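2024-03-11 09:14:02 DEBUG pipeline.ingest accepted 1 chain
2024-03-11 09:14:02 DEBUG pipeline.ingest length=214
2024-03-11 09:14:03 DEBUG pipeline.predict start
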Amino acid sequence: MFYDVPYRHQQAVDPAALTTIAITLQAMTKALDDCRNAGVDPNTDPAMVLLARHMATVSTNRASRSVLRHACDKRLQSLKRYPALLALSIRGVEYDQAAKERFHEDATAAMRDLASALALAEGSYTIASTRGEVSESGYVLLAAVEVAVMVRVGRRFEGREVSYRAVAPGVDQTNRNASMADLLRPARFAERLTRELRLRLAPASVSEPSLIAA
């Protein structure tokens, strides 16, 4: 059953209380819900259109479109040089669900890049993401026939966020450590793993990941 409410229309006609982008966005989100409940297309709803136009008036940044695009491009380049994983390795993710999700997403991607740099064939390795308790980062683990690599963040792991070791029988399986910055240079880090662990890199199918001891 469709129903409509007057609130979004009142805000659109008199948006004086909507003084920031954040507040206006909240009003637009609520207005979208109202449109859905009323069975109204938000793209043509007059209240939604007025609220969308109001969004442009509350921004304190009056720079031109070209200036803003240039600023976004610069920010993108900066983020490529300083990935989120580096920031998360410094600040940690404990008790921050959004940061923790970002850590696991980006760390999983970093492990895929490392697997590619190690020339591991599809099906010859696993990447496991374990969240752990809210008070810890959990970890992301790359496990292959010859090597296991784990990444986690937090104050106790600062500067040694990455643990790695050989897992093949009859070889030294001592844990070694590296920094997050090392992991984010996959080609160089793959060379280091191959050299230090004397990997032969002859991938085969694996079933269960080999855990690195804490």
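2024-03-11 09:14:41 DEBUG pipeline.report Helices lie at 7-13, 21-38, 46-58, 65-81, 84-91, 97-117, 180-183, 186-197.
2024-03-11 09:14:41 DEBUG pipeline.predict end
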